[in-house]
Amino acid sequence: MPKFIEMPHLPERKVKLLIAGERYRKILSDPLRNLGISVLWMPDNRAVDSRVSGHVDLSLVHLGGNKLLASKNILGNELFVNILTSREVELIVSTEEQGCKYPADSRLNVCILGNYLIENEKYADKLMASQRPDLKIINVKQGYTKCSICVVDSKSIITSDKAIAEKAGEAGLNVLLIQAGHVWLPGYDTGFIGGAAFKTAANGLAFTGRIEGHPDKEKILEFLNDRNVEPIFLTDEPIFDIGSAIPLCEG
Q: Is the omega angle on the peptide bond into residue 103 within 30 degrees of 0, that is, cis?
């Protein structure tokens, strides 16, 4: 049986398999292969806005181990489902209807780290809390919590959302609040730091591109260094939002 990652997004060893949006295969396939990481490429979710239909954080939530909470809108792709089930992934179908506009597109956009579930309780899929009753909920106004949060370790995050930063800090998490913007997302004024990064190991954090153009570059690098987390820059492009990626198996 594959060695699944027990706590979402926080592998203890090097990630061997992750899930990312199919539309980013061309630009990320080689960099990830060079890191020894295999990728399951998720098809577009046609129920949400076409500009972000390839964003994993709108369609899947890793509940830990081999469990994924999944939008029914991507489970119609038989090939993708067969690939997941052949790897012994347990798919739990979301009961929520998704749509192109907020908050209907944000039902699965939650952030799980350590013992915490950061979500907007009003909009998030109710299956989340029932599937992981062990997690302490940090309720925030922001519906796109996974987009907005870059997970550094089980107790540390980076975000440009002041309200998330305040609530997470009150809960005892280490928080770096950075300036909003400076993340590329075609069709929008800006993307989000959480959508432009994902864990590759306990001590590794991959960014889709370079952060030289970000005004808080030095603060970000210092925050990572203080926690013994190495930044990995997958491309030479300025960082861009792909809806993050889901580390699934380690080895």
A: yes
Is the torsion defined by CA of 127, 132, 138, 143 positive or negative? negative
Count the Cβ atoms, other than its own, within 10 Å of residue 33: 11
Q: How far apart are CA 218 and CA 40, in angstroms?
A: 33
> Looking at residues 105-126, what average pLDDT do you find?
97
Structure confidence at residue 77 as a pLDDT band (50, 70, 90):
very high
Amino acid making up residue 144: Y
Burial class (CB in 10 A: 0-12, 13-18, 19+), 35: middle
pTM exceeds cut of 0.90 = yes
Map out the domains of the chain with their CATH numbers.
15-250 (3.75.10.10)
Phi, psi of 179 (to 5 degrees): -70, 145
